[in-house]
Amino acid sequence: MQIFHDKTALLVIDMQKAFVEPGAAHCIAGAKATVPACAQVIQEARAAGAPVFWIRRQYRADGSDVEFTRKEAWRKGGGTMAPGSTGLNSEELAEGLTAAPSDYQVLKPRWSGFFGTELDLLLRRLQIETVVLIGTTTPNCVRTTCYDAIALDYETIIIEKCCSSQTEEIQRANMEDMERIGAKIIRE
Prior knowledge:
The protein is α/β, with parallel strands linked by helices. The protein is 32% helix and 20% strand.
């Protein structure tokens, strides 16, 4: 199925070691298994000429910008996702994923890729009408980005095999909810 065209962008959400690697402070149980599918979709987007946006989380080294719901995990992880960090709890992309020089990097302060970022401005300047979402975690960052994209009138597509949640039940329920509000879910 060809989903990428000249008005489509791929948003890769939080596919960083601190969220993907087993044992990391913020690890999502199903995230590591999605890396090969994510890499394939990223390659397809690039081949079609669609811009790739890496929507990433990064926290100040002092933790002053960590949301209160993650503060304890941030502390236990030794101050996760600090600028320039490497290793298990870092901001680095997950093993098997590589950003190209032409890709866009968007740092987000909270769950949604749109909240407090330049994402909407960049997409509009590129005349993007459709966003394709992949990444982790489905009930938090993927879902809030989906809702904001729809609220901003972007056609929104989510590739289920490239998204992850802590459990299959959470994944299923969130995919169904996003579909009910108008997102197109690709389930192949």
